[in-house]
Amino acid sequence: MRWIAALAVLAWLAIGGVGGPLVGRLSEVATNDNANFLPPSAESTSVSKLVQRTTDTQTLPYLVVVERTSGLTPADLQAIQTWVAGIPDLKLADPSRTVGEFLEAPPTAAIPSQDKQAALVPVAFLADQAEVTIKGDTALYAVAQALRESAASSLGSSGLTVHVTGAGGFFADFIIAFSGIDGILLLVALGVVFLILLIVYRSPILPFAVLITAMFGLSLAALVVFPLAKNGAISLSGQSQGILSILVVGAATDYALLLVARFKEELHDEESTWAAMKTAWRASLEPIAASAATVVLGLLCLRLSDLGSTKGLGPVGALGIVGAFVASLTFLPAVLLLIGRRIFWPQVPRVDHVHSADAVGTRGIWGRVAGLVGRRPRRTWVITLLALLACAAFLPTLNARGIAQSDLFLTKVDSVTGQEVLARHFPAGSGSPVQIAAPQAKADAVVQVLEATAGVSNPQAGLVPGQPPEVVDGQVIVQATLDAAADSVAAEDTIETLRSSLDRVGSDVLVGGTTATNLDVRLASERDLKVIIPTILAVIFVVLVLLLRSIIAPLVLVAANVLSFAATMGVSAIAFNHVFDFPGSDPSTPLYGFVFLVALGIDYSIFLMTRVREESRSRGTRPGILVALAVTGGVITSAGIVLASTFSALAVLPILFLVQIAFIVAFGVLLDTLVVRSLLVPAVSYDLGDRIWWPVGLPRAGRHEPGSESVVDVHARLDDGAPRESSPSGPS
């Protein structure tokens, strides 16, 4: 049979050889523009389409801000103007390419501020050229760098400070922030997992087999994701790209831990590694398949989202889980068979008929936990429930209304600094106007509303000052400048006020622009929460019913995981508001947290309850619960620590959203593993006894039979002399 294992390894080497390089190229097919992710029904999307029809080109503005706090001198203004005139001729990384070929038109004269301390230079970049590659970098990034380096060289030497901000500057800084996502993030995740596996296995060989399994799973996922994203079949963002790597490494390691632990168990009874693997593989297939199916279906529920970025994560993440599942159940078993018992060196398992169930009643930690649950089940779950509810009480304090674009970065970047300088000397919304699409006959009424709205200035009909507006199908564009920064919550409040006021002018008057796009993203995120969360819960419940052949057990597991999520978000609110002092959270943060915590967190309950059902067939329900808890405690806890550590790797990227997701998932997984799965679920299940399997119950042949271990037998091994609570349903 070794030749079958050898063929499987060779097949995976081929997959890794083709898919591995694509993992590093996923950034080539990723996009991070909010406007591209909004549904066609969004108000700002309709305005954007009209703007595109009104102008020949769609632009993305860089805003170059030049400042001297003591005041700009005539010599400064002349130097700035000379530099502006030379912008089109600036060379890029490829000397044959210049900045000018990517601009709508050469920039005009710099605009001085009223306080004479700063000047603003708008540079209109052609949006459809953003993904053009120049020496490995996108044109969007290359032009931003050329502007920054040239301005620093030409103007910085005379004491002027120069910053490049605006939408173009922010996107360029996002590219810098995500530039290491393929390498640094993956290396950090793999390094952390490797150290944990060394501690868990105490073997220098086995961790490499597990990590290679994870990498092959990621290669298989990239083999499918890359062409789909390249051809526009799915949307891949920088965030989805980073989460994909973390998901695959975490899931593949979890599945590997379960399979390896069961394989090691069987090696104590079987001389043949093939026979041991056959038994272990069959025993592990059901829980791993159910776990993978739960996560895949939960992620696919994200297809119901109105946001392209969230919708795109669904299939991207699902393909990653499929890759992890296939690699864990094909490549890893093949490696284990080829190397055999030696893979566990130096602690090589021998045929000694020592069973993991013998851990019950020992002084080991999980024997003690099982003893606690068995002696005082009701007290255990009531105290645990109250503690979780206390944490969940802080959930309403989570500020997920949205944050300014400048707050997305946790490190100081040029675009954020430039935005701050811009706000000091100009209306903060300069360069990112609010745009209103209205029938031509209502244009004057729209201008009057804009003039009467606080926080709005310089309204005008048309895109070009001093020129009559272009009419397209009887509609025109009216523009104005927001006093607040275009990416701020205050600016979004102004947009909401404008929309309410303009509704009185007519329902055919639509508000768009950068701020309106951000607002529509938030509204879509709030809608997604109401639609996707109930759908995911329903899907998970159905999977659990099919797996456990019960209704009560799935209800207990789903309720426990929802409570775990609520407690996690409550603790996260405390941490974000009072420990880390974050400015807020992205509206999609609770949804992402829910998907990962509930869809992934249910894995550990699945691993536990499938073993409970297996043990209960021969021992009875209550003894089966205690034995399953004792024998799975170590491997499931290890899996939870691995997954928490893997998601923590997201914190290496200086993006607020990813750091918050890293905290939520890491804390939530540990809470679920160490508290919910270890105390709450087994204690409630023990208290319910046989009723946990209602309405089907355990097969008659699996009921407690003469000669099998009873609950009294198990308690005899667990009991340390402390009194036990009685259960209302009697012995199992």
From TrEMBL:
The record's subcellular locations are: Cell membrane
Q: What is this protein called?
A: Membrane protein
| Membrane-spanning intervals of the chain | 174-201, 208-229, 241-263, 284-305, 317-340, 380-398, 531-548, 555-579, 591-612, 624-644, 650-671
> In what way does this protein cross or attach to the membrane?
Multi-pass membrane protein
Family membership? Belongs to the resistance-nodulation-cell division (RND) (TC 2.A.6) family. MmpL subfamily.
Membrane transport protein MMPL domain mapped to chain residues: 37-378, 474-695
A Pfam family annotated for this UniProt entry: MMPL
Q: Which UniProt keywords apply?
A: Cell membrane, Membrane, Transmembrane, Transmembrane helix
